[in-house]
């Protein structure tokens, strides 16, 4: 993937080449097959000219599959016929019982099909059936139909502001709630109000509590005397829930959509124990999907989801490049487990991958190793992102060190 300025698709086809950022040790680009391979880090692509716009929904579409293999399997039958070594496997105790096929380790150089018997370390396990042939640098393939998905990291994707001093998911201003008394209450009473916004991706956003000192007292609300509540418009919102607190009593007034206003005339849905806890205050161009989003399979599957840019995102403050980022929130757990991504596209339309006339740019910027990517160095303009060791940014937009 090269630095894109005019096209609406990011290319990872069997004829495209791309760099994946100068500071990532993984993912890597497979020069032969043309796909990105993720085990723990992010694939990052910079955009110029503030390509991503406010109040816009971008559809991310990509093909994916899970596979588990290593290319550095070694067994020295002169030392032990059942000890399997691999510096890249990242074995765990959960791998015990998992099927494994070791290229060339069987009788007369045939493949050895067996299971993992015991776990020794992240790089060493014992196998059930003895090897007949010494091998090194061999391919070992592991079963992928019984992974414990509850222990696996999630997939995240989003749009990143790489401007100096910011370097976070692109976001809008905080959710705001205005609360204004209409009419002239006979007995002014102080009340607090808050709005909680639910999005179609499941995130919740909240405003600060707003104090209104001159609301009508109980029994004084009527058609002309009430509190008008108005919330910030949030792209992707599916519900605006308005809450009220009076002298320690919390009430849910109403849940509305598509409108984002409510007139508090003292009609409530129910009393609650307090304001709910929301995920964020700012709408972010970021999505998180659990590992169950992916199913282990030999065949490719296609997936798409939406990333919303807040209506209040101020693109003039993005003085450096915007980045599209997709990756994992941690290290995949399991011997040789890798997530393959291909045919990635990001656009404001249907989100389907199609050939692009500027695909040749990606070929010309080919990079077979992340350290030779052309996207800049750490902390330089237009360049790298400050990442923790596993290369992910937390859901709150702060690096998870």
How are the SSEs ordered, and which strands pair?
Layout lengths: L27 E2 L6 E3 L3 E6 L8 E20 L7 E3 L13 E4 L9 E10 L2 E4 L7 E8 L12 E7 L6 E2 L1 E4 L2 E6 L6 E11 L4 E3 L3 E6 L10 E6 L5 E10 L2 E8 L4 E4 L5 E3 L9 E3 L1 E4 L11 E9 L12 E7 L8 E11 L11 H6 L37
Antiparallel strand pairs: 1-2, 2-26, 3-25, 4-9, 4-24, 4-26, 5-8, 6-7, 6-9, 7-8, 10-11, 10-23, 10-25, 12-22, 13-17, 14-15, 14-16, 14-18, 17-20, 18-19, 19-21
Describe this structure in words.
With 401 residues, the chain is an all-beta fold. It folds into 2 domains: 1-170 and 285-401, no CATH class; 172-272, no CATH class. It has 1 helix and 26 strands. The strands form 5 sheets. Strands 1, 2, 4, 5, 6, 7, 8, 9, 24 and 26 form a 10-stranded antiparallel β-sheet that branches. The protein is elongated. The protein starts with 27 loop residues before the first strand and ends in a 37-residue tail after the last helix.
């Amino acid at each position: 993937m090269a630095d894109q300025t005019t096209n609406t698709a990011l290319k990872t086809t069997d004829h495209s080449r791309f760099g994946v950022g100068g500071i990532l040790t993984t993912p890597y680009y497979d020069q032969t097959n043309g796909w990105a391979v993720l085990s723990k880090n992010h694939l990052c692509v910079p955009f110029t000219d503030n390509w991503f716009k406010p109040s816009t929904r971008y559809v991310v579409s990509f093909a994916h599959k899970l596979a588990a293999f290593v290319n550095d399997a070694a067994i020295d039958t002169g030392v032990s016929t059942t000890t399997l070594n691999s510096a890249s496997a990242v074995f765990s105790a959960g791998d015990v019982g998992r099927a494994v096929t070791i290229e060339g380790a069987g009788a007369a150089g045939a493949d050895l099909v067996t299971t993992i018997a015991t776990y020794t370390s992240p790089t060493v396990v014992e196998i059930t059936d003895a090897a007949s042939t010494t091998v090194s640098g061999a391919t070992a393939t592991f079963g992928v139909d019984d992974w414990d998905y509850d222990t696996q990291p999630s997939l995240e994707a989003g749009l990143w502001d790489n401007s100096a001093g910011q370097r976070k998911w692109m976001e809008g201003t905080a959710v705001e709630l205005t609360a204004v008394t209409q009419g002239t209450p006979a007995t002014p009473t102080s009340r607090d109000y808050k709005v909680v916004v639910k999005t179609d991706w499941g995130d919740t956003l909240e405003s600060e509590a707003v104090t209104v000192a001159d609301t009508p007292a109980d029994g004084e609300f009527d058609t002309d005397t009430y509190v008008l509540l108005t919330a910030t418009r949030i792209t992707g919102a599916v519900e605006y829930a308005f809450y009220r607190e009076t002298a320690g009593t919390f009430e849910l007034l109403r849940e509305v959509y598509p409108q984002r206003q409510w007139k508090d005339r003292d009609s409530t849905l129910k009393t609650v124990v307090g304001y709910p806890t929301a995920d964020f205050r700012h709408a972010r161009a970021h999505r998180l999907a659990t590992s169950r989003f992916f199913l282990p399979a030999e065949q490719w599957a296609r997936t798409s989801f939406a990333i919303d840019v807040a209506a209040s995102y101020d693109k003039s403050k993005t003085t450096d490049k915007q980045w599209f980022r997709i990756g994992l929130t941690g290290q995949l757990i399991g011997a040789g487990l890798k997530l393959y991504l291909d045919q990635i596209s990001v656009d404001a339309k249907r989100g389907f991958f199609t050939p692009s006339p500027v695909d040749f740019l990606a070929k010309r910027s080919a990079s077979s190793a992340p350290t030779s990517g052309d996207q800049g160095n750490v902390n330089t303009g237009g360049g790298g992102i400050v990442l923790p060791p596993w290369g992910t940014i937390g859901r709150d937009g702060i690096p998870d060190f």
